[in-house]
Input
Amino acid sequence: MSVAEWMSTLAVAMAATACGGGSGGGDAAAAPTEPGGGAAAPSMQTLNSTLDRPWGLVQLPDNRLLVTQKGGTIVRLSAAGKTEATITGVPKVLDSGQGGLLGITIDPDFATAGSNWVYFSYAEAGTGTEAGKAGTTVARGRLEGDALTGVQVIFRQAPKVDGTGHYGSRLVFARDKTLYITTGERMKGSPSQDLQQTLGKVIRVNRDGSIPSDNPAFAAGARPGIWSYGHRNIQGAALHPQTGELWLTEHGPQGGDEVNIARAGQNYGWPVKSYGCEYGSPVGDACRIGGGTHAPTYIEPLTTWTPISVAPAGLVFYTGSLFPEWRGQLISGSLAGTALWRITLNGDTVTGKEKMFGDLGERFRDVIQARDGALLTVTDGGKLMRVSR
Output
């Protein structure tokens, strides 16, 4: 981090102390610090600047990368980030608004013969009675050379609706090899509270799309697969390295972006409660939706970004050795916030949020940890970038 950025971030943190919001208390919980002990500051290097609206990335066992591009293609990159091939066999996607080819992950047993599955989410156009509508869909296919084969849909958001926003679409495997799928509420609000719809939910399925027997039980009529609900638009999801719980970042409206832990059967309050405000409201606390406070009816966020949204996107727990002072902390990308965020933790309590690389002006769409401990991130500007020392 440059000295100028450090000073700018410190000023923002001090100015935000009055914003509050959520149990984590907004953006000002901690001022940024430079690494001690003579360690070099983190630096950002561009590995590839020719990607086309990249959205998600995953590292393969041989250290090469797969990157989804919103227009409907998956590209394979070398370990050094050079584009090698376009993967064929991807189904037709609806590239409109926030929709397109979105999240991606690989099977936990990908290196085992017959388990070379790639899982990906995308906006799928409706047909028949749902023509003109769309929804989040998840499919998988075996990666054979430069092609996906045997592609099968394992989840479709129901119902499909009109509009082009809030598809969610992050994919994370749990320790038991079930798959978490995040969905947005498609900018409709109320479906997040409706258990007969899978909009604004975390979904948990088996690898083939069947429903795990230990999913939470809801009242009759609830859609199968729902894990948690009351979400707005989840674009960051990561598994805690010690507890195995699923941590989320989700977009608020005008302010009120949240960090949450997705626990079975829990309701996170959208659209009834938010520390954000309706779009166009005067900046401040008085306009918070439902008064802001979630408890006791709904689950309080661990922290929020207020009064202005940063639009968090992509999320990873850092466990590597390249930045030992970051171990156990969360790293989040952000879109409107044009920065990476380092979120410090004490157990389940957020103790601080540090803005990093904000001087680059990039919209950081996804971020992962590479096997060498570096961070890899893709930006809406078409770049693959590496954070190292």
About this structure: The chain is about 5% helix and 35% strand. The radius of gyration is 20 Å. The helical segments are 3-15.
